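Collaboration report, partner site 2.

Our partner group contributed sequences for two proteins of shared interest, and the home lab folded both. The records are reproduced in the order in which they were received, starting with the first partner submission.
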Amino acid sequence: MAASPNGVIVTIEHVRAARLVGEGVTCAPGIRLWAQRYGIDIRAFLRDGLPVEQIEAIGGPFAMRAASLARAEQETTNE
């Protein structure tokens, strides 16, 4: 599993759920293109996820939404 200083990992499930109104890359080809655009090893991402900090470093509303979903899930898990 990928290491994150705060333990939050963004997974493919977060990315698929991150669809924004009128935009997003929730289909497999779209996610592959998104990963390629930002230098993400798609196989490693599918297997292990990525630290939330790496996704946040991409910036943009889609990446930030995926990161937000991962953080929210972690918060509910820790309650």
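Second partner submission, folded after the first:
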Amino acid sequence: MSLGFGVGDVIAVSTLARSVWGRFRDSSDQFNAIQTEVAGLYLALDDIANNLSGLQATDKQVKDLSVLTEGCRGVLDDTDQFILKNEILRTEPSSLGSKTQKAWRKLKWDPATVNELRDRMVSNATFLNAFNTSLARSVSSARKLNLDISDIGCMKGSV
């Protein structure tokens, strides 16, 4: 790949997605939906990293993927900050004082923020999946082209 962007960059954002997902693992039920969206981002990024391995991407693909991964990094960073701010929402054995604090945080917790993060994740995952479909088609076409060329070579030798 060119332009200083490569599979390692995709893997870095994929690793961030997995880390954010892991932080939701023990969270309360309110966060189950967003955990699913983070998992979707992780899977899409991981698929792209696998498809890019051993492929010489075009400059346009590299630019497009750079924009897409930056969008993912942005929403994952924002989600991570939201988690840190609302860390008290994690489920764990607690005393009466921490239960009161947890209830107070829930009252102050803004579901609109979670919905906005989820919307951004769904949007990013949709774009990543579209990019991955295009990438998979390119890989398939390149493989078919290589097979066709080698078939021609075999036919020349048999003539």
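Feedback sent to the partner group on the second submission included the following. The helical segments are 7-24, 32-52, 59-85, 96-108, 111-158. DSSP finds five helices and no strands in the chain.
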